[in-house]
Fold this sequence. Notes:
two-stranded antiparallel ribbon
Amino acid sequence: xTDQQLCHCGAPARDAVLCVSCAxxxxxxxxxxxxxxxxxxDLDVAMSRQARIxxxxxxxxxxxxDERFAPGTLQPQPLPYDPHVSVAAAEVRRLLRILAVDVIAxxxxxxxxxxxxxxxxxxxxxxxxxxxxHHHRAPEYLDIALEAARVARRAVDRPAELLFAxxxxxxxxxxxxxxxxxxxxxTHCDLVYEVTDRRAWLLRSAEDTLATTTEIxxxxxxxxxxxxxxxxxxxxxxxxxxxxxxxxxGRKTVPLxxxxxxxxxxxxxxxxxxxxxx
Length: 278
Ligand SMILES: [Zn+2]
Ligand SMILES: [Zn+2]
């Protein structure tokens, strides 16, 4: 060690690898994720809150354009959550695991963090940031921490009301539209789609999905027209809608209905009221 060791940013680092200012940035990035109601908490909330319809993982193939005939292509999740948020959360967790498990636990032989959630990992790393600061690869670890905080922030800063508009026909990229928008543009290939068409396509492709009244109401409200779970239960009471199975939710067993059956009832009602649209 020389007398005047320099941080990668050029500032004097004294006896550490990172200078005081870079060490602060590292600590701050981790605590933004770990703190009470911080980014880790926001990710959890964002994941459990959003109503959406989920596409099977992977890019759709060209011959899958008419996937409405393939049941289960788009299905409301048992616990609806935002697909982008869950991808981001997995990435944040991967980055934090590099610091916690691959570096700190590996090199200090510390016990692995028991809670390996995003918040749990960050909370475990935080008191060990001082140790990271002295590691010869500290600048790299600072980048990882900053990237983790950045990915988390970008995910939770997304407007919650953005609506999944399905994959682009051309490139397969998922598109998101503002609920009030008439058009949605693929950010990849600049193709423009009508949002109403996309919503109708998404709902039709989810026809064979079995879901609870709450999930169906949420999906149809988001992608079609406002609809309450009570309205769906009203159809059940009048014998117009029959369950196709059950699911255990906690200690309760709840009936599942076919989303397409509810759409048919709504279409029939709209036709009767003379409000059917093409
Ligand atoms: Zn520095
Ligand atoms: Zn595209």
